[in-house]
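Quick illustration for those who missed Monday's session on complexes.
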Amino acid sequence: MPIALITGITGQDGSYLAEFLLDRGYTVHGLVRRTSTLERSRLQHLYSNPAIYGKTLHLHYGDLEQPINFMRILQRVNPSEIYHLAGQSHVGLSFEMAETTTDSVAMGTLRLLEIIREHPSPVRFFHATSSEIFGRPTLSPQDENTPLSPVNPYGAAKGFATQMVRIYREKFGLYLANGILYNHESPRRGENFVTRKICRTAAAIKLGQASELRLGDTSAQRDWGDARDYVRGMWMILQQPVADDFVLATGILHSVQDILELAFQEVGLDWRAHVRKDDRLMRGPESTTLVGNPEKARRMGWVPSTQFPELIRWMVKAELDSLSRAPRTEDPA
Ligand code: GDD
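Prediction with guanosine-5'-diphosphate-alpha-D-mannose bound:
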């Protein structure tokens, strides 16, 4: 039975990836940070299943600031595949928390690479990097050869980590792969990312639990896909005979405004009556025309399955359902 170790297993991608691998007969080990609150809601259905938790799914306390702790887990688990998804992932927040972001994203990855370099058994390593490494690219769409030009601390930290994966792969001949991931969404997305924020607030307004939605730049454009497709892509990347980098993207740009219109249409309301511009949510240097060319991933058989309108409708429906059961208490910034 193959064994996988996932950093960031409690996040959107980690939880979908855990399900995907368990379905394929993997034993899955996940690294969870020790915090005062138990943030495991996305894994709850697996965690509370006695046929899974403690049998094919195991969670270990650890974080990437303590390499010895990770080394011990790695030795004990001895996985055939590592999926590195952990790290501060909010671009806007990375301006406020530049050091924490750099430490978790850049140094956290480097520490793992150093440990893998010394690990006695062969292991395949997937690094979840980001389209934010391209920042303001001179070419669109971007592919695996597009030069890095990040415009925020998060993108710069991801750029460093991406390049170190390439350098260690070449220098030490290790199986290390970068997945250059464009935005990917689902009802499990964190509430302060724009798709989830819009879908959740539109649903809350419909249900009388909120009255307005405050947003930054609604003309901003991104390449948005379905998170479930992206975790399938991560696994496919590690099944390639030779370690390589792959862009995972839909290749199609949409704007924040498009999300707004679709989400409010889904709940039968006029967005104009509820949306307010909030200058505090404007990002400053904004990444532009981040749209990926997924041609290389297509050649390995990866095709995104969900269209953008379907994705937004799915997210709104999920919010209507969950807010009907448990009303919203917080306002996502
Ligand atoms: N979060 C947020 N909140 N974004 C807003 C808002 C708002 O109120 N109003 C407008 N936006 C715009 C942002 O300025 C950005 O242009 C776009 O909506 C998307 O923002 P996010 O959903 O926060 O995602 P992101 O593109 O910055 O980053 C995500 O995708 C990257 C891959 O391209 C994150 O998941 C990153 O971790 C990931 O690497």
